[in-house]
Amino acid sequence: MLHLQRQHDVKIPANLSFSLFNSLLSKEITFNADTLYRRHWPALLIIILLLAFSVEACARDYESIENIRHTMQHYIKNNLLQGKNSGYEIGDLDQRLRLDKCDRPLEIFDSGNTRLIGHSSLGVRCRGSKMWTIHVPINIIRYARVLVVKENLSRGSILHASDLTTRRLNVSRLFNGYFTDRTEVRGKVLKRSLRRGDILTNGMLDVRKLIKRGDIVTIMASSGTLAIRVEGEALMDGRKGDLIRVRNHSSNREIQAVVVATGVVKVSM
Questions:
Q1: Are the C-beta atoms of residues 201 and 148 closer than 8 Å to each other?
Q2: Which fold has domain 209-268?
């Protein structure tokens, strides 16, 4: 009498929580033993290989995001910041980032566009047995006491020290420029009206005209110990250092002279 071998069920438990196959193994899978060993052995082999790969993947050690950020912070503080008036921001690093743990200290390097102020990036790399490189965005912040106007000022106003005050601002955002020294702007003329608290920029200012067309001016000429002063008339407007045309009243001749002060020009002999 022919006896059939009793068939047994083979179960693969769902509590093998492998990251790549959670969805596949979310339920117990039951196979008939005969089907499993005789008819579908290639499928069984594939499953075994996939599980082995999953075990290896789970066993790999990855570089922590915290260590990458800590290494960058140390580099920024020691190489990019300038005193207490500086700060920084490091861009978000994806928590899903999977980089092999470096068996050597991480290296930080200039990625080619690293700046001492504003937005740029830093490179982070591993030169260990499993090398990798990433680039991380950063923002270097600078604070300074910037000149602003104390009250509303109209176009054409001549700036005086009393017209100005300072405010501590993040200058990395002041793309149009700024001033911190009153002597740089004192005596200059506003090209447009300003409101209280407006930040002074170079584009708002013009150098004051020391001479206007039609002004009576003193024409100076000197050579060694000899100095001559004559009266003349300005034929052009002029700022300090400008070369303008003037008419000598004594000779009625037109000459060129350099503006040296209010109402004073100088010619070479």
A1: no
A2: SH3 type barrels. (2.30.30)
Query: Which comes out higher in pLDDT, residue 16 or 72?
Result: 72
Rounded Cα–Cα distance for residues 60 and 102 (Å): 12
Q: Which tens digits make up the pLDDT trace of 109-135?
A: 998 888 888 899 999 999 999 999 999
Residue owning tokens 């066993």: 59
Evaluate whether 151 touches 196 at the Cβ level (below 8 Å): yes
Structure tokens at 127: 């030169």
Length of the chain: 269
Beta strand 264-268 with 216-223 is: parallel
For the chain, the structural domain boundaries read 9-59, 61-206, 209-268
Instruction: Return the residue matching tokens 């001749």.
Output: 253
Whole-number Å distance between alpha carbons of 145 and 169: 6
Residues 123, 111 contacting (CB under 8 angstroms): yes
Distance from the Cα of residue 42 to its chain's centroid = 57
The CATH number assigned to the domain with range 61-206 reads 3.90.1210.10
- pTM (global) more than 0.90: no
d(CA 134, CA 101): 14
Rounded to whole angstroms, the Cα distance separating 8 from 87 reads: 69
